[in-house]
Amino acid sequence: MAETPVRFGILGCAEIARKVSRAITVSPNSTLYAVGSRSLEKAKKFAAENGFPLSAKIYGSYEAVLDDPDVDAVYVPLPTSLHIQWAVLAAEKKKHLLLEKPVALNVAEFDRIIEACEANGVQCMDGTMWMHHPREAKMKEFLSDSQRFGQLKSIHSIFYSAGDEDFLKNDIRVKADLDSLGALGDLGWYCIRSILWAADYELPKIVTALPGTVINEAGVILACGSSLQWEDGKTSTFHCSFLYNMTMDITVVGTKGTLHVHDFVIPQEEKIASFSAASRTGFTEFVTGWVPLPFKHVVTTDLSQEACMVSEFSRLVRSINDGGSKPEIKWPTISRKTQLLIDAVKESIDKGLEPIQVEA
Amino acid sequence: MAETPVRFGILGCAEIARKVSRAITVSPNSTLYAVGSRSLEKAKKFAAENGFPLSAKIYGSYEAVLDDPDVDAVYVPLPTSLHIQWAVLAAEKKKHLLLEKPVALNVAEFDRIIEACEANGVQCMDGTMWMHHPREAKMKEFLSDSQRFGQLKSIHSIFYSAGDEDFLKNDIRVKADLDSLGALGDLGWYCIRSILWAADYELPKIVTALPGTVINEAGVILACGSSLQWEDGKTSTFHCSFLYNMTMDITVVGTKGTLHVHDFVIPQEEKIASFSAASRTGFTEFVTGWVPLPFKHVVTTDLSQEACMVSEFSRLVRSINDGGSKPEIKWPTISRKTQLLIDAVKESIDKGLEPIQVEA
């Protein structure tokens, strides 16, 4: 007995919504049901170009999507400054929420979104796709192996993306009124998430932004970084920028092992992804060489990571709507921790690189 | 007409001297000629075990090596605290100097070594082997390519090495009286060198140590890191530690390209080494994948990187002794810059992570 697919409504016609629309189409338990834009014409065009069925509802406003009783869940790729308004309203209309990152402008805003979701019994999940790639579980398996990896000690993450002239002038991610967190919210989000992920979501104690923040004329961050320190002596750094060639690395080192991945946010290929793991790495003093050599792990997937994300989200939605389950608290919890650290980095930058105590 | 090989004297029987002795044996223009230790027995054993010819001179002191008129050059792998005494004396005895890193405890000491070398017309080169691997030139070619790499923006380097209980208790590199710079001098040296190398030896303007320095009971650094900032906005971080699984990375990112190398200090294999280069990396928003993919560059070498180093050093020595050339100033210049930044990181750590202005 096939389950009814979760019917998605899309709020807005952002570029990223094209990728997620494709993922919804591809996911067996999900279907494109509605799209709303402030411009009906844009919504029509978007639906026609992105595989919406002919029966799909095309609305000239976001409200109309939320008022449609047949919409089970909404995907919200709106500019970050609009998240609180539309995410809270969606939750109040009992729509499950797949929310683009950064989830809010700050953790206080996100707390209002979480409250609305809890009060209305709806699932909240952010759009961090790589968390849903099967590679994630394989990497975590290595990091959790006390024999091969040992105790976690150090995490470094970078995410750069070379914005062209048009991006740096016109993209919503460099506009103070739309996405004031800039590269920190867009790229740093992934770095911070990868650091929390490696640390089993244990929050660091102190966050200190690195020197060298780049800020545009509107006051939006174009490049920044931070060091993070935990109670037990673990340390981490990350660096993000809209100004350099696309690079996306996680390096995680323990007492006995090292993990490298160079395409953690977006795998180089859709159906196959890899990472490198080294254990008890040594070399002889006498000749040049390593013993043992690092090992390349390859993970294949039938579904793209974004389709895996949509499928997992829809599985939770079905389980709440049909099975009476409670929403999975893991997802909003890690969204909140990520946002909390973004806030701390921003505060450190604003205070001239002062160390910031992280308080959950 | 074959040139006379440069006759090396080795001061002391350090573990690393075994590797360099092998490199001298393998290098066509170099020969093992003498070894001196405070213990004649140790020197005899060392010579017997490390391929010294039967005719080699075995001395019961370092002085005796320096007093042998047939020694052209000395290799000095002594504890860092002894460098100034023996390197200066070697130069005064007209011996060319292959000096292990860190070259001194601080730049003031190294300046005295440089002065002695200049006054006596002898070559000074430090023992940073990877600089002499043919891979170095290939990587530099990529970084210098304005089309493929663009303008240098960001450099990250890490070097970890997991010291066992014996190392952390007894190695000279954790002893305050022998190698007080600890992991900074031993491992951080390579990180700093790689950063300077990527930046064409342009010194940063400001050095700020990262939070999280680990220091042993004797006050020696076991783990530390730093951020570095240049006048033009380039930034860099490095991190080094004796406490984590062996890891040695350089990540260099420009406006158009990215270079990754994971075995920069010691290649994974003796005769073949690689690095990854990516240019104008992008991805489509619609499907998952990168265009173009990074490219793996493979470089082969007949001589190990340490033999390449010895050969280059001996080529310079021959050119000075036989051809009347002046010593190559490049090598002591980059040694000095590396030491200068080590001093700055140490000063920042000692001053509670204060930013330090670098003054050449």
Number of strands of chain A: 18
Low-confidence stretches of chain A: none
Order of helices and strands of chain A: EHEHEHEHEHEHEHHEEEEEEEEEEHHE
Say what oligomer this is.
homodimer
Number of helices of chain A: 10
Which fold does the CATH topology of the largest domain in chain A refer to? Dihydrodipicolinate Reductase, domain 2
Chains forming the largest contact:
A-B, 66 and 66 residues
Protein name (chains A, B): Gfo/Idh/MocA-like oxidoreductase N-terminal domain-containing protein
Pfam families (chains A, B): GFO_IDH_MocA (PF01408), GFO_IDH_MocA_C3 (PF22725)
GO molecular function, one term (chains A, B): nucleotide binding
Family (chains A, B): Belongs to the Gfo/Idh/MocA family.
Written account of the structure:
- 2 copies of one chain form a homodimer.
- By secondary structure, chain A is α/β, with parallel strands linked by helices.
- The first copy, chain A, folds into 2 domains: 6-129 and 306-328, 3-Layer(aba) Sandwich (Rossmann fold), CATH 3.40.50; 133-303 and 339-357, Dihydrodipicolinate Reductase, domain 2.
- Chain A is 34% helix and 25% strand.
- Chain A contains 10 helices and 18 strands.
- The first copy, chain A, has helices at residues 15-26, 40-49, 62-67, 83-92, 107-120, 134-143, 165-170, 182-198, 305-321, 330-350, and strands spanning 6-11, 30-36, 57-59, 73-76, 96-99, 124-126, 152-160, 206-209, 214-215, 221-229, 235-241, 247-254, 257-261, 272-279, 282-283, 290-291, 295-300, 356-357.
- In chain A, strands 7, 8, 9, 10, 11, 12, 13, 14, 17 and 18 form a 10-stranded mixed sheet that branches. Chain A has a 6-stranded parallel sheet with strand order 3-2-1-4-5-6, sandwiched between helices. Chain A has a two-stranded antiparallel ribbon with strand order 15-16.
- In chain A, helix 2 links the parallel strand 2 (30-36) and strand 3 (57-59).
- In chain A, helix 5 packs antiparallel against helix 10.
- Chains A and B meet through helix 1, strand 7, strand 10, strand 11 and strand 12 of A and helix 1, strand 7, strand 10, strand 11 and strand 12 of B.
- Chains A, B: Belongs to the Gfo/Idh/MocA family.
- Chains A, B: Residues 144-259 form the GFO/IDH/MocA-like oxidoreductase domain.
- Chains A, B: It holds the Pfam family GFO_IDH_MocA.
- Chains A, B: It comes from Protea cynaroides.
- Chains A, B: One of its GO terms (molecular function) is nucleotide binding.
